[in-house]
Design a protein that fits this description.
By secondary structure, this protein is mainly alpha-helical. The protein folds into 3 domains: 137 residues, Annexin (Annexin V, domain 1, Orthogonal Bundle), CATH 1.10.220.10; 70 residues, Orthogonal Bundle (Annexin V, domain 1), CATH 1.10.220.10; 77 residues, Annexin V, domain 1. The chain contains 21 helices and no strands. It starts with 14 loop residues before the first helix and ends in a 5-residue tail after the last helix. Pfam families: Annexin. Belongs to the annexin family.
Length: 332
């Protein structure tokens, strides 16, 4: 797919920087000077210059933004996030404050917001937990306790129910089973058999699906799911839709999709939730340094339109500016 780099005007990024390293859209800013950025941000706050705030904070990676916050505190004796909060409001405030958090803090806040108030946002819980590594999940658990003085596991138990709770906890605590002495193809066959038998009774048994999907590495699971689909002659997603229901069905489908193709799942999430700015902000902020370029490609294939254009169409003003800055470029 040809990628046309049509970057936001306020963002001086060159093509070589765009394509270096990971599949993220936000990269380390060259010739980074945190003290200079802190002074420029101080002036922008005084002048209520939102464009400058967006330009700087979306053009620095998270580690650099943390350095800017430290330099800003040294310069002004004030907390940068609190200063931003006083000036901004709405979706732009949430987005820039999210950028100032560490990745683990940001995910912890998304999980807490998904469980606060009336009702629980099960899909956001699954999105965050399913698309993070084992180490990231450990970091999120620690950050959640530090930010809210609460245990993430306990909140998940109190805000969800039954097998869906078991699924969430199994993902959160991802632990590899000890399979020493078991040959890979034997383990694949064993897992395929377990998943198949779990669907053979009058009522599907979720336990083998939860166990296998949360105790194997991604390469192994890709082989298992691919072989399972070949043997069964149907997609895993379709089988789950038939045999399970409610939150558990949604959760298993999201987990399988994220295992098979995380960028595709996130593209689908953006497409179906484009009008929900909290979801869009959450995905763009959390994936901007990981795989947002891949998400953009999948979105283009899925929607027959670029993510950049979709954001332009759906959002306006300063929030649009910030979202486009994170998205970075048009795909044609």
């Amino acid at each position: 797919m040809e990628i046309l780099l049509k970057t936001v005007e306020t963002m001086p990024v060159t093509e070589p920087e765009m394509w270096w390293g990971t599949m993220g859209t936000v990269r380390p800013f060259p010739n980074f000077k945190p003290e200079g950025d802190a002074r420029e941000i101080q002036t922008a706050l005084e002048k209520k210059d939102v464009n400058t705030l967006v330009r700087i904070l979306t053009n620095r990676n998270n580690a650099q933004r943390q350095s800017i916050a430290q330099a800003f505190h040294t310069l002004t004796q004030k907390d940068l996030s609190q200063a931003l909060k006083k000036l901004l409001s709405g979706g732009l405030e949430d987005l820039l404050l999210g950028l100032m958090m560490t990745p683990a803090q940001f995910d912890a806040h998304r999980l807490r917001q998904a469980m606060e108030g009336l009702g629980t946002d099960e899909e956001t819980l699954m999105e965050v937990l399913c698309t993070r590594s084992v180490q990231q999940l450990k970091d999120i658990t620690i950050a959640y306790k530090q930010e809210f003085g609460r245990h993430l596991e306990n909140d998940l138990i109190s805000e969800t129910s039954k097998d869906f709770t078991k699924l969430l906890l199994a993902i959160l605590k991802k632990q590899q089973e000890n399979m020493q002495g078991v040959i890979e193809f034997q383990l694949i066959d064993r897992d395929i058999k377990a998943l198949t038998e779990a669907l053979s009774g009058k009522k599907a048994d979720s336990a083998p699906w939860i166990r296998v999907l949360t105790t194997r590495d991604s390469d192994h699971l890709e082989r298992v799911l691919s072989r399972w689909e070949n043997v069964r002659g149907e997609s895993v997603d379709k089988a789950l839709q038939i045999h399970f229901s409610g939150d558990l069905r949604q959760g298993l489908c999201i987990l399988v999709c994220s295992i098979q193709n995380t960028p595709l799942y996130l593209a689908q999430r953006l497409q179906t939730s484009m009008k929900k700015s909290s979801v869009v902000r959450g995905v763009l902020v959390s994936r901007s340094e990981e795989d947002l370029l891949s998400v953009r490609v999948e979105y283009r294939r899925l929607a027959n339109a670029s993510l950049y254009s979709a954001l332009q169409k759906e959002y306006k003003g300063d929030l649009q500016l910030a979202l486009l800055a994170l998205c970075r470029a048009e795909d044609v």
